[in-house]
Amino acid sequence: MRYQITGKQIDIGEALQTHVKTELGSVVEKYAGRPTDAAVIFSKSGHEHVCEATVHLSTGLTATAKAHATEIYAAFDGCTEKLDKQLRRYKRRLKDHHKVRAEPVELFGASSYILASESDVAEDLEPDSLQPIIVAEMETKIPSLTVGEAVMQMELAGAPVLVFRNEKKDGVNVVYRRDDGNIGWIDP
Question: Residue limits of the Sigma 54 modulation/S30EA ribosomal protein C-terminal domain (predicted)?
């Protein structure tokens, strides 16, 4: 597994890097057979240390966690506990579905836009056209998953919505968390 351990305006010593590799490696190997890479970023926010970790698995799952603590090792340990919980739930769900993915998740390119809200535009000025103002445009990846895998990916990422390509019907679908706490699925 490839590790990328960095610090934002703080020095990451050799002892911390070794600790990260051994602890994170043992957690990931316990639940995932083929991890591809892990990125761990340490930063400081006021008097607290912040640790953000992202682990990519060969099945297409991306597990992320973030933790705060007054000491840098405690922040990493909190982050590792969250990753451990996510991977344990992921493995349990895989066992429940009795499905083994033979090949990695296929990703398709797409564009993602951030539009300006009405408060961003001056109220006294009339816009030249009725088209919304695009503030940012970026590339994003759309995974090809089953509905169950998409729900699992959305829950593990903590996202309110996930756009994916349905493997069974070969169309773009959306899963989202409803206001009542249930999961909604849009299949056009």
Answer: 131-184
